[in-house]
Design brief:
Layout lengths: L1 E2 L1 H12 L5 H8 L3 H13 L19 E9 L4 H11 L5 E6 L6 E7 L2 H10 L7 E8 L15 E2 L3
Antiparallel strand pairs: 1-6, 2-4, 2-5, 3-4
Helix pairs in contact: 1-2, 2-3
Length: 159
């Protein structure tokens, strides 16, 4: 699928505010309503737009601690990796799970109300996940930059 300049403009608009009305998007990119709507629908159907979400202010909802927890597994067989991923993904405190190269196998981004809640997560949930050899936590002191959007230009997206 090819993303042209207009598709890129639409994507950049929606990443800033996914509630913008289609008629307003159409006006900003120089289209009428129907072609703009069809382009958005096409971008959704092709998985370019995965979902539309509200980004919350973590502080205002009481989430004041973020930690990056680096995990080393005891065993790295395909079955053990899949079991770990399936088990760890069930936890709502975990915002992100990434597989890594290097000395750690995975990195988890964990959100908690405070250090006590994070400690309870480690003791009561993470410690019960099979095959974890070691974990190391890095507590976030401050966030310098946090983006959820990509700068999109006209590109070719592999099918």
């Amino acid at each position: 699928m090819k993303i042209d300049k207009i598709d890129a403009q639409i994507l950049n608009i929606l990443q800033k505010d996914c509630t913008v009305a289609v008629k307003n998007i159409a006006a900003k990119v120089g289209l009428s309503y129907t072609p703009a709507y069809e382009r958005i629908k096409h971008l959704e159907e092709n998985g370019i737009i995965k979902k539309r979400v509200a980004i919350l202010d973590s502080d205002k909802i009481g989430i004041r601690l973020f930690a990056y927890c680096n995990i080393t597994l005891k065993e790295q067989s395909q079955k053990s990796l899949m079991n770990f991923e399936k088990s760890i993904a069930k936890n709502p405190e975990i915002l992100e799970v990434v597989s890594l190269s290097g000395i750690y196998d995975y990195m988890l981004k964990v959100a908690a109300r405070d250090i006590e809640e994070y400690n309870n997560f480690i003791i009561n949930k993470l410690a019960n996940v099979p095959n974890i050899g070691q974990y190391h936590s890095n507590i976030v002191m401050s966030v310098v930059k946090c983006e959820t959007s990509y700068h999109v230009t006209g590109i070719h997206v592999p099918d």
